[in-house]
Amino acid sequence: xxxxxxxxxxxxxxxxxxxxxxxxxxxxxxxxxxxxxxxxxxxxxxxxxxxxxxxxxxxxxxxxxxxxxxxxxxxxxxxxxxxxxxxxxxxxxxxxxxxxxxxxxxxxxxxxxxxxxxxxxxxxxxxxxxxxxxxxxxxxxxxxxxxxxxxxxxxxxxxxxxxxxxxxxxxxxxxxxxxxxxxxxxxxxxxxxxxxxxxxxxxxxxxxxxxxxxxxxxxxxxxxxxxxxxxx
Amino acid sequence: xxxxxxxxxxxxxxxxxxxxxxxxxxxxxxxxxxxxxxxxxxxxxxxxxxxxxxxxxxxxxxxxxxxxxxxxxxxxxxxxxxxxxxxxxxxxxxxxxxxxxxxxxxxxxxxxxxxxxxxxxxxxxxxxxxxxxxxxxxxxxxxxxxxxxxxxxxxxxxxxxxxxxxxxxxxxxxxxxxxxxxxxxxxxxxxxxxxxxxxxxxxxxxxxxxxxxxxxxxxxxxxxxxxxxxxx
DNA sequence: CTAATCTCTTGACAATTATCAAGTGAACTT
DNA sequence: AAGTTCACTTGATAATTGTCAAGAGATTAG
Lengths: 232, 232
Fold this sequence. Notes:
Radius of gyration of chain A: 19 Å
GO molecular function, one term (chains A, B): DNA binding
Largest interface: A-B, 49 and 49 residues
Oligomer: homodimer
CATH class of the largest domain in chain A: Mainly Beta
Pfam families (chains A, B): cNMP_binding (PF00027), HTH_Crp_2 (PF13545)
Keywords (chains A, B): DNA-binding, Transcription, Transcription regulation
Protein name (chains A, B): Helix-turn-helix domain-containing protein
CATH architecture of the largest domain in chain A: Sandwich
Domain Cyclic nucleotide-binding (chains A, B): 14-133
Number of strands of chain A: 11
């Protein structure tokens, strides 16, 4: 593992506060891999021998059943993923593939479990990270259960406008078919929903979205802190 | 807090391995409450000052948005709930109400966070419990995203037949409208789905379900370890 | 440059799911 | 015992969502 990779992940909340010696034990035997786009990293059901940290690129976590597939989450740098499977030493519930050229740091799961017992700061950070992930999935579940697809889309657009600094126009961060899958709908349905949102002040051209007036969209979306705010 | 309550929760995996002194610090200032059925315990958005442990009865965790409501989980004894909110010191994402007369042990959240830092066995148990909860929500999310309502119902029935020891006939563990809400469907829809399952060997009379032949139902439900097995 | 591939869009249609209204039967209240 | 309430069921209908097919436009490979 190169010095630059070590530095990069060291600043993550999950590693930031731990002792240097514990961090060294954690990344002993770790390695880094670079993948081209559209590569499968692992498949659901496999054993999770490494905690993964994405340092560059984009990774999709998806699940399959009966020839159906759904996007569970998009991982963006710099963040860890698969913490729960690592802790439990249990098989992955999701599969993963790169969407862009990606760089992944792999920390042996055994190290994670060992150092968890030895370093309090790390233990605290791990449990906080896990609690945050848990709350993230619960929010996503509420989103799917309580809202129709057009309501989910409206909230998605508002969130990404905020992330884009509130600019009237911004680019969608993903292919539309991935957005559709993430929102639990078909690409056809997404296409039609975007047209319908024209009546609510949303203009769409390719990957570009323009929201001329947030008012109508907000009245439709009714964003709620306990569903849409990632920090609460 | 009475001696019997202390014993009861002490045997939970989350408390079983910790030192006696740590356990004592944990339940200092704890108390126990008994609630009649249909009582609201707390509402989403409120601060989580206590880790809850249900020792008797049944509690529903539900979420609301825009006058809609959905059941997120049914808590059965003996188990803890609200661990993630406790750890993060963050507001509840769900509301809770009793479905039966229930007994709840309340452990101050501050104690949980403090003892987490002091007792390794407890820290390990907390993180494992949280990881298990996380994986539970992910499975539930896969269930909702990848399956139609009748497929979810078919899997639900098969699971409860197993829990009932595999007997041909067994009683539903909840009111049908709660089952409907848990499965993300309306009561009307559940009623019709149960009729449809008649073609798959399911007989229903009130709270009683009889599955004369699991074959057809299994072919419809296609249960998967990574969605339906709570232990994997 | 051309052909092939792929995403996105649109239309027609089908399946799924929800809503509204009414009726039945059981449990509970007075 | 009679009345009330409530869960559940059923029918009719509407809304939502998915499927299939075809075509436009962009990108990529040769």
